[in-house]
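Question:
Now give any protein.
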Amino acid sequence: MAKQIKKKAFEIGELDQYLFGQGTHYEIYKKMGAHKVKSGRKTGVYFAVWAPHAKRVSVVGDFNDWDTTADIMTREEPLGIYTLFIPGVEEGMLYKYCIETQNGDLLFKADPFANYAEMRPGTASRVTDISNLKWTDNTWMENRKTWNQDETPVSIYEVHIGSWRRRPGAEDEGFYNYRQFAREITEYVKEMGYTHIELIGIAEHPFDGSWGYQVTGYYAPTARYGTPEDFAYMINYLHKNKIGVILDWVPAHFPRDAHGLANFDGTPTFEYADPKKGEHPDWGTKIFDYSKNEVKNFLIANALFWLEYFHVDGLRVDAVASMLYLDYGKQSGQWVPNKYGGNENLEAIEFFKHLNSCVLGRNPGAMMIAEESTAWPKVTGKPEDDGLGFSMKWNMGWMHDFTEYMKLDPYFRKGCHYQMTFASSYAYSEKYILVLSHDEVVHLKCSMLNKMPGLGFDKFANLKVGYAFMIGHPGKKLLFMGQDFAQLREWSEERELDWYLLSEENHQYLQNFTKDLFRLYHKNKALYELDTVPEGFEWVNADDKDRSIFSFIRHSKDNKKNLLFVCNFTPMAREDYRVGVPRGKQYKLILNSDDKKYGGSGAERPLVYKAKKKECDGRPYSFAYSLPPYGVAVFEF
């Protein structure tokens, strides 16, 4: 009987293979990839890659002049993981795996588990050591464990680092690195009143124009903005300033780039083998094979890697609908039904339940957010109740109805009045985030300001009343960068935002108003602590369609400091507009869009209104308020 050689601690062992094969090796990234280790007296790098159908695999790189025969890897059974320790390999060196297919072809692949990559247009992986990252955010991480998203304010600033701001006069592209960005974004976010930032395009990707949604390096923060250590510094800095960090995450599909995951070992390794299941015709991308335990493990461990190793607070999961439906974006004949004859991807459903149970079970207080564009039930329901287990879901229906209504000339809004009230009928079916995201300000959709009807003042006034309605509506909040000061142009990843607009009064007024809306949101529990239950919201008048006015109440748990919103979506002033209220008490005006600091007329108005015994809107008491064109008034009672 052959003597079994004892594995070193850093090597892939039997237990690693077993757990990876079961799809439950949640820290597989500590073994796979390239890791600096010491073997005996020699220091070098241990490489490990999964290539089950490869004929032969070698490591090529700066350290061996990219010689495909110099460093041949050893195949570990039963899963086909190839491993090799190479002494003398140093940090910063570039490398790839040379995979010889069963047909004899040579494929040069980047490391799927690499933590750092060559700056594009280069496609190699780069040796790095992330075992000694410096963290001083212990207080934040401890508090996160008991954080309750349902009863706290969540206001998210969606941002793309490369096009937020750029360094003036730089000879290169002028990108801020992670450390510079951390300091700048912290100052801005704290001034504006956001609780979290959501970062677009962090995982390594070859093409800027994909915005990071076609990933080749799932375990590597993009080199565009610095090193993994710089990325960790940014997270740590934001946490020290009490700002949460959410990353966009793409487990739905990946690009066909030759150095990426597609046909990794000469066969469909990470993707479904059948093109009818494994390809997106519209996007030209490959779909992960959720039936393979190793693929599911790769993705689930990746989610945990960002949350546990890099302290990220949440993942916004992209294109969930494309994963749930086998016929998503496909014509008849381009897809295969499931075993019951339906269009649901049963393997993706199981994957989501496993993913969310694992990630949220291990990381209480973290967030898993679904970007899901259909009416799939129980997206935020518990897996044990046949839900998918997400923490929150983007409210795409609200976003569509809201933007379509806001684009209308005010004269025609009365015909679409209930587009603005419809979302309240399903507001508690899921735990929602109201979003005005990057998707709404690209591809000729116009910026938020230029969606608005009218000219000049009317556009800004429309946007103000729209944002106020959003803040008052049940659901957490997300706003894409630039929309809080009325960016004129559509977003482009090729340039920074038009910050010079803040030298113009109307843009400054809009920013002041947005800032005060978020202050109102944070200061008043009525706007967030009953977000997920119907007791927190009450229509006063949802039917005033002829005047396009909406009035509603947000209730707090203790029924103190409730808020009354009155929103006028036409350019018509409504003198002595009477609004029904539940109590005969004083109503304090705490936000008035007609204030001079928001670009309004500054007309004097009482700050306190006494409700009288006069029935209105089906309520026993009421008071009259002079509602200006596109006016918003918020009262506390």
In short: The longest strand covers residues 42-50. The mean pLDDT is 96. The longest helix spans residues 505-523.
